[in-house]
Write a structure and sequence with these properties.
CATH topology of the largest domain: Chloramphenicol Acetyltransferase
CATH architecture of the largest domain: 2-Layer Sandwich
Radius of gyration: 28 Å
Helix content: 25-40%
Strand content: 15-25%
CATH superfamily of the largest domain: Chloramphenicol acetyltransferase-like domain
CATH class of the largest domain: Alpha Beta
Oligomer: single chain
Number of strands: 19
Shape: elongated
Number of domains: 2
Distance between the termini: 57 Å
């Protein structure tokens, strides 16, 4: 039976394989996760639609697969018996009979078995280990055939792998070669337990995706961050004035919808901030739609749902959609389509705290706005010292597309849009 990729959700018809949980010969149960698939910033486990023994794996990490495409083939009954040991001259036959999903492991095993056969010894069987341990070994680049198993039948445990790594660490007496000019140094693993107790937490697939994309943005974009403050006193008064009316309509009125509408109006005045750089065609793509991404802090990592056509929607509609998308994102029920197509992103840390920070641009966008926590401060207005609610903002932009003068003008107009917000936009 073939297990195929099911429908992923509204508007999502493909994804990239980021991890495979099974190997050929493994017995799987129905609904058991067999692989993880990435679509935008969402990473989901794909379960098996039937039970059986894995006969063939049709995909590998990094492959893009579409709905209906074969993932694995299952056969019924117990796991098939191991194939008979190959003859010394049958090197090509062994390579063809090995699982297609593990080409690197196969090559190493074939070389070792051929060498032993030439010396007159019986070829060594594949190391015995659980699927999860095999997967870990592949990710870490460990050759399990070189690890001595401590359990019955030579079965390898996690502790056996740790012991093997400890031996390698002790044997590594030669200093690592210096990296080539401009190359990223190889990571060094440090045993922090030698100084005290530690806890280890595996990195989730979502966190890996976030790390990769943030690194890509950091390395590719020459960024500059423009700082300023916005007087949110009037917006705070408007929020309090209309909060009850919005609650009667089934939603909360926070300051974020005000910012969304002000940003949308400012983007209309400065369309280059609502653009993307096409490096292939050497063109700047100016978008005539305004789809704003909102960075949402979840227990699994930062995710960015998109509110579409903010410039065309009412404050009530924006407030409702913002509340709905934020809740779906925190519950990990957001679809990949709901995180696509953003033209400009807003990261609001006001509810958490902190002041200025430098947000990283969400590629392929060219700018992002960061909001800190507002605070009452003494300022001079019309010659008088008064208390006003000032909120720090940080505008990071792609200097390949936007110059400092443009960023300063955008910031000035955004401050005006917030401080002189039209009350008619708030009324229901």
């Amino acid at each position: 039976m073939d297990v195929k990729l099911p429908k992923l959700g509204e508007g999502a018809d493909s994804g990239v394989v980021v991890g495979i949980f099974v190997n050929v010969g493994d017995t799987v149960a129905k609904d058991q996760p067999i692989l993880e698939l990435e679509n935008e910033k969402a990473v989901a486990s794909i379960p098996s639609t039937a039970a059986g023994v894995v006969e063939k794996i049709h995909v590998k990490s990094g492959d893009r697969v579409s709905v209906g495409q074969r993932l694995i083939t299952l056969s019924g009954g117990a796991a098939p018996a191991a194939a008979p040991a190959p003859k010394p001259a049958a090197k090509k036959t062994v390579a063809k009979a090995a699982p297609a999903a593990e080409p690197e492991e196969v090559e190493e095993e074939v070389v070792e078995e051929t060498t032993e056969a030439e010396e007159g010894h019986t070829p060594v069987a594949a190391p015995v280990a659980s699927p999860s341990l095999r997967r870990m070994a592949r990710e870490l680049g460990i050759d399990l055939s070189k690890v001595r198993g401590s359990e019955a039948g030579g079965r390898i445990t996690t502790q056996d792998v740790r012991n093997y790594l400890a031996k390698l660490a002790k044997a590594a007496v030669k200093p690592a070669p210096a990296p080539a000019a401009g190359a990223k140094p190889a990571p060094v693993q440090v045993d922090f337990s030698q100084w005290g107790p530690i806890l280890k937490k595996p990195i989730s697939q979502l966190r890996k995706v976030i790390a990769r994309r943030m690194s890509e943005s950091w390395e590719a974009v020459p960024r500059v961050t423009q700082f300023d403050e916005i007087d949110f006193t009037k917006l705070g008064e408007l929020r309090k004035k209309y909060a009850a009316a919005y609650e009667a309509k089934g939603t909360k009125l926070t300051l974020t919808p005000f910012v969304l509408k002000a940003v949308a109006a400012t983007l209309k005045q400065h369309p280059v901030f609502n653009s993307s750089l096409d490096e292939v065609a050497n063109e700047i793509i100016l978008k005539e739609y305004v789809h704003l991404g909102i960075a949402v802090d979840t227990d699994q990592g930062l995710m960015v749902p998109v509110i579409r056509d903010v410039d065309k929607k009412s404050m009530l509609d924006v407030a409702k959609e913002l509340e709905t998308l934020a809740a779906k994102t925190r519950d990990r029920k957001i679809s990949a389509d709901e995180m696509k197509g953003g033209t400009f992103t807003i990261s609001n840390q006001g509810a958490i705290g902190g002041a200025h920070f430098t947000p990283i641009i969400n590629l392929p966008e060219v700018a992002i706005l960061g909001l800190g926590r507002g605070a009452m401060k003494a300022v001079v207005r019309d010659g008088l010292v008064v208390a006003r609610l000032l909120t720090p903002i940080a505008l990071s932009y792609d200097h390949r597309v936007i110059d400092g003068g443009s960023a300063a003008r955008f910031t000035v107009d955004l401050v005006k849009a917030c401080e002189n917000f039209d009350e008619a936009l708030v009324k229901i």
